[in-house]
Amino acid sequence: MSEREVPEIGPDPSLLIVDDDEAFLRRLARAMEKRGFEVELALSVAEGKAQASARPPAYAVVDLRLEDGNGLDVVEAIREKRPDAKVVVLTGYGAIATAVAAVKIGATDYLSKPADANDVTAALLSGSGDLPPPPDNPMSADRVRWEHIQRVYQLCDRNVSETARRLNMHRRTLQRILAKRSPK
């Protein structure tokens, strides 16, 4: 996407970025400042909530999993103070259940890491009825299966036997799948 195709930033260019990966946070902040946003940074849920209360931003980019909690708590804090804010949730753990939870709480969009500044800008500035373009690198069928198994495993409080029963799968097969790295 070129710079010319991106819609204009509204009258309030305030952007809060909340992520516990400091290197990523700084890189994204520099890129978003170049695009015209006035960036505030937070490294934790506590910092994000404090900044959302003190100066509710017009835009926000929030990592889902932070060291001190869940980024959805920051999304809720932003929504309480500024219901019209556009919020994008970022995560390295892309799963359908967390995407649904993020959108229900009020996130405008949900992006899997690694997301670059162009993806974030497009998500923040898209109209409410705009459909996003198809992904350049969609998840493979193996990855989707793995994500589903991980979600059920988490919902069963990481109980292998219960997860295997609910997935109608042999427990040892499930253990082998859980021991492997996630597919690409």
From TrEMBL:
Protein keywords: DNA-binding, Phosphoprotein, Transcription, Transcription regulation, Two-component regulatory system
Coiled coil: none
Sites bearing 4-aspartylphosphate, chain numbering: D63
Domain Response regulatory, residue spans: 14-128
CDD domains linked to this entry: REC_RegA-like (cd17563)
Statement: the UniProt record of this protein carries the keyword Chloroplast: no
UniProt superkingdom: Bacteria
SUPFAM superfamilies: CheY-like
InterPro entries from the UniProt entry: ActR_PrrA_rreg, Bact_response_regulator, CheY-like_superfamily, Sig_transdc_resp-reg_receiver
NCBIfam families assigned to the protein according to its UniProt record, in alphabetical order: ActR_PrrA_rreg
Protein name according to UniProt: ActR/PrrA/RegA family redox response regulator transcription factor
